[in-house]
Amino acid sequence: MTTADLAVPTTTRFRLRQISVVEWLALVVVALLVVAVIAPGLLTSYDPLAPDPAAILQSPSAAHPFGTDYLGRDLLSRVVHGTVRTMVGSAVAVVIGLGLGTVLGLVAAYFGGLVDAVISRIVDVLLSIPGLLLSMVVVVALGFGALNAAIAVGVSSVAVFTRLMRSETLTVTGLPFVEASHHLGGTRRQVLIRHVFPNSYSAVLSLTALQFGLAILWISSLSFLGYGAPPPEPEWGLLVAEGREYVVSSPWLVVIPGLAITVSVLSISRVSQFVKERVL
Amino acid sequence: MSRRAFVARRIAQAVLVIWLSYTLVFAVLFVLPGNPIRDKITNPLNPLPESVVRPLIEYYDLDLTLVEQYLVTLGRTFTGDLGYSLVSGIPVTELLAQGLSETLALAALALLFSVLLALGIALTAVFFPVAAVRSVVRALPAVFLSTPSFLVGFVLLVVFSFQLGWVSSIRDQGLVSYVLPALTLAIAVNAPIAQVLIQGLSRARGEPFVTVLKAKGVPPATIAGRHILKNGSIPALTLTALTVGDLLAGATIVETIFNRTGIGLITEQAVREQDTPVVMAIVVLVSTLFVVINLFTDLVYPVIDPRISLRAAAAPRRVRRRVAIG
Question: Which of B10, B16, B150, B293 has the highest number of chain A CBs within 10 A, making it the mutation to test binding with A?
Answer without folding.
Answer: B150
